[in-house]
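Narrative of accomplishments. A recurring question from our advisory board has been how the design workflow behaves on a single, concrete structure rather than in aggregate. To address it, we present the structure tokens for one chain from the evaluation set, followed by the sequence designed for it. No filtering or post-editing was applied between the two.
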């Protein structure tokens, strides 16, 4: 089997779904896993997700990107002070998940968060970044590193180009062979599977809300998915009250026309 590289979407505390997904993938030591970020906030196992990811590094090659939720959690673990905006965005579930976590483990987690990458460019000029970037000259010229985990313009502009049937996406996409992001659930555009537009892939299939967790193998474009993550946590609401649950589950695994 050729070496495989998987991009894995936003996990948001859904450890049970992550374990199921990796079981379906059948991880080999020769595999590379690129995690797109947002490991925490949502389901009740955020701290457990981080401990699991730390262990996973001994099974295969792992690359961990930084999501906006991870940046909040990192700051809280470093200072003990949670940002108000974090608490409004699911931080409370993460803080709860750390209640029984002893200091020596927290120390390892701080190290994990510190070492997260804001972006990764592989040796074939593929870009992996949690949210996006705005610089016309590429990620190494980005005016504010927070854009890497907060930007929504790259995804929104790409969808606008697609809606207008443009031959190309935003010019900055052309700087890379392909670009992989998470951050904005594909559920928002009616899809429960990773969405490709031009050379941009969005692999956040809304695991924190009412979607599954997804892995995309970048050479074959094969998609692997967990079950709907909320099914693993029947007494929880995840990142919202599940208001979208009915219509989304109805169209489970239906791939939108490209
Ligand atoms: Mn995000």
């Amino acid at each position: 089997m050729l070496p495989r590289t998987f991009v894995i979407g936003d996990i948001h505390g859904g450890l049970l779904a992550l374990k199921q997904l990796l079981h379906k993938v059948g991880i080999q030591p020769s595999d590379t896993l690129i995690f797109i970020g947002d490991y925490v906030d949502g389901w009740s196992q955020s701290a457990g997700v981080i401990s699991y990811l730390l262990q996973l590094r001994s099974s295969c090659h792992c690359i961990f990107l930084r999501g906006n939720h991870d940046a909040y959690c990192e700051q809280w673990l470093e200072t003990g002070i949670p940002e108000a905006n974090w608490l409004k965005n699911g931080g409370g579930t993460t803080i709860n998940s750390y209640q029984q976590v002893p200091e020596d483990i927290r120390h390892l987690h701080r190290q994990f968060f510190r070492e997260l990458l804001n972006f990764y460019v592989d040796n074939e000029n593929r870009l992996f970044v949690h949210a996006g970037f705005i610089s016309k000259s590429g990620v190494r010229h980005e005016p504010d590193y927070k854009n890497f985990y907060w930007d929504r313009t790259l995804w929104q502009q790409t969808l606008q180009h697609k809606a207008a049937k443009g031959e190309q996406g935003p010019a900055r996409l052309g700087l890379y062979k392909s670009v992989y992001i998470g951050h904005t659930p594909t559920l928002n555009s009616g899809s429960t599977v990773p969405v490709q537009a031009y050379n941009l892939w969005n692999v956040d299939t809304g695991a924190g809300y009412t979607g599954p967790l997804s892995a995309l193998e970048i050479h074959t474009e094969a998609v692997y998915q967990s079950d709907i993550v909320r099914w693993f946590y029947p007494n929880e609401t995840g990142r919202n009250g599940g208001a979208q649950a009915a219509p989304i589950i109805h169209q489970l695994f239906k791939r939108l026309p490209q």
